[in-house]
Fold this protein.
Amino acid sequence: MEITIHQSFLPHSDPDASVAFYTDVLGFEVRLDVGYENMRWITVGPPNQPDTSIVLEPPSPDPSVSDAERDMIRAMMAKGTYAGVNLASADLDATFERIEAAGAEIVQEPMDQDYGLRDCAVRDPAGNLIRIQQRT
């Protein structure tokens, strides 16, 4: 059996700011941009990995989510505690410098972790935690 990661989902609070971050800062490409009523789902991914994508979606588009639950999700997004993703780079320091120069919110500068990885952490415009590890 062979299973691969095809898509992961992260919420966005501002679709245009999210597109700018993922394309201009991280170098991803937009693969789909689908709107429905006042919502947008934007699929992005690294150009060299056409089968792996992140779908940036409206927070809690499910109609079964209550207004109170939506408010909680928005509050958690604002604090950066709702969602995140781990990425990898062949040159973590150069990647971090580019992201920092673009003005992204820095959570952690590159550092060697006790568990054997070197990584950094930033937040996207919606507050999602983006950890980037040094690819070995």
